[in-house]
Amino acid sequence: MALGFESSDKKLRIIRSAAKVFAQKGFHRAKMEEIAQEADVGKGTVYEYFSSKEQLFFEMLQMGKNFYHDSLTKEVNSEVSLQNKLKKIAYLHLKFIQEYKDFGRVMMQEFLQLGSEMQNYFWKAHEQEITLLSQTFQDGMSQGILRPLDCKVVAQIFHGAVHSMGGPMIFLDEEPDLEQLSTTIIEVFFKGIAK
Amino acid sequence: MALGFESSDKKLRIIRSAAKVFAQKGFHRAKMEEIAQEADVGKGTVYEYFSSKEQLFFEMLQMGKNFYHDSLTKEVNSEVSLQNKLKKIAYLHLKFIQEYKDFGRVMMQEFLQLGSEMQNYFWKAHEQEITLLSQTFQDGMSQGILRPLDCKVVAQIFHGAVHSMGGPMIFLDEEPDLEQLSTTIIEVFFKGIAK
Amino acid sequence: MALGFESSDKKLRIIRSAAKVFAQKGFHRAKMEEIAQEADVGKGTVYEYFSSKEQLFFEMLQMGKNFYHDSLTKEVNSEVSLQNKLKKIAYLHLKFIQEYKDFGRVMMQEFLQLGSEMQNYFWKAHEQEITLLSQTFQDGMSQGILRPLDCKVVAQIFHGAVHSMGGPMIFLDEEPDLEQLSTTIIEVFFKGIAK
Amino acid sequence: MALGFESSDKKLRIIRSAAKVFAQKGFHRAKMEEIAQEADVGKGTVYEYFSSKEQLFFEMLQMGKNFYHDSLTKEVNSEVSLQNKLKKIAYLHLKFIQEYKDFGRVMMQEFLQLGSEMQNYFWKAHEQEITLLSQTFQDGMSQGILRPLDCKVVAQIFHGAVHSMGGPMIFLDEEPDLEQLSTTIIEVFFKGIAK
DNA sequence: TATGAATGAGCTTTCATTCAT
DNA sequence: CATGAATGAAAGCTCATTCAT
């Protein structure tokens, strides 16, 4: 697995290894030694690049988040129809989860382990994401495409709806057809379930 | 906090205490000693009732899950309109999260700590829940109230949409008006966001 | 070796063991594990009684110091002639060093390892000792037995003179006749070396 | 601080740096890296000149000792009166301590950290010093200036008396008038304290 | 049944030392 | 000669679990 970014640089090798091991074992069960071995470096070397286990965990999450965030932002700023844009966002989100399952698992369930300062960092990042979505919906309403609704709530519903598909993918190893899945989500989301 | 179930029985006292301590510290940082103290029993006594820390954690989650599940099932089997039923489900879910914040936090983010056997148990429980919802939607479609859609996906979307509201409540201490919030969710869910 | 106080109490066993191991290896080379083994308890048990290695070191020194201090004080308050009193003090000091060589070694050379707070504690104790001696000399001057001199400096000279004999005993395993040695010291100290 | 010997030579720079760092932190807390930095050389360079941390420590102490020893020997071989000679020795000893406080601290309390072979080296050096003093006293006795006493014991008492003044200077930062202090010491030492 | 003193496996982190450049 | 990135042995401390009482 690991995070797309290929590189021979040692720091990156360690982060990739960390992603893998943290994903398999969770924060506390993961041993620095195993991370080091996986990265094919000595235990001490890890500490040359990261001051502590927590710091390594943090930077690993950060890198993944940035990677995801960048592709999201690019999509939001693209010039396609609202519906296509949202569909693409849903697709990318699920694609990311499918591709980086291990990372997703950690991100979803382990960041409570971080000190509250770092937790805060990621909640702010999440808020930003919601805001980004929010504005997209706001645009839709201004243009008269969407009904007038509480943008932020809508954004949160959207995010939750998409994100909730990740659970079975991650934990039950389901591999749904993402193209079709995102189409359905958008369908439901735009037209509702009522006849 | 603790989980509604009042009892003077020692085992329950320990579970309640466990819920409190696990919620505050997470699985790994929680100490058996603190749980014992909080329950006002000796450390050894905990092991009379639970074979290990993990087992205690598991049973604690299980009890919370059952508590939640029962109220959900009751609602699903009630004889109100589909829309009101779903609204009530959303409301109950959010109410549960609001009431048992600490428990919710653990449930959402710590169960990865469990061995995969026990993790499995909860995923099955979650699947059951989704199936329960699924059937509700299926009924709606059979009755011609809802458009024909993939029931399971709809159920998942619904669950995800509702559940996603829990994050800010748990982690940012937001206390939204649940009555209104569930109304909005249902609104969006039935009619869609498109004009 | 160990410190006179016989006891089957576990805390004391650990302190005695600590005295032995710290003496042989010095503070940093001493391993908690070895101390535990020597005391015939588990590693964790040591931490039941002492919060840290440093704390154990501190309490060990403290106990030795008290043991020594008590016998010194008793002598100072006895009703013998000044000369005999000082001779007894010298004798006791050297006797203590001879008997508890290992402890003496640590006390003389390792307490720098302590945090400054604890270092302070022992310097104050040492000052007290000097003050105690000082008063004895003051009495002698008041009674006209001694020449008028700076009491504190005299006390320090006396202490240093006696104490300096400890080096060879501790580090070169010399075992001089303490009776005679203390007689000589007092002799020199009272009458001077000049003809 | 550092030890008087000015030089631009790299080895000396390292020793001077070592003296500083060892003095501040003690043997075990001192890091080779910090010593290297302070000497403005690379970490590996230190190992070009010294085979190990212990060796560096040893050579550093050795240099300090020689520096002290030389000035002492010069004084012992000078042609002044016995009393003045001893006074000068006391004065030089205390002066050295006052000037090189940090070094004194290490010398007094850290050399236990050395392997026993190196410890031995310094005890022999100390014995030499005592012997040197011993001979001075022997001369005094031969000349009929001093009472017939055990020379070695007298030398040890003298050394201890003088040295004991160092404690407060080093650890309590006292800065006594050394001229007066050494006069008092000699006074007491020659005439005794008795009336 | 209830207890808590005792235990020791297991983990993070440090830092002297090496060696390729 | 000089360097500093890389290393891994070593040690303090924690805490789930046991068991004698």
Automatic annotation (TrEMBL), chains A, B, C, D:
Q: Looking at the UniProt feature table, which residue ranges are given for the DNA-binding region?
A: 31-50
Task: Please give the start and end residues of each transmembrane region.
Answer: none
- Keyword NAD found: no
In what residue span(s) does the HTH tetR-type domain sit?
Answer: 8-68
- A Pfam family assignment: TetR_C_24
**Key words, A-Z:** DNA-binding, Transcription, Transcription regulation
Q: Which named protein is this? A: HTH tetR-type domain-containing protein
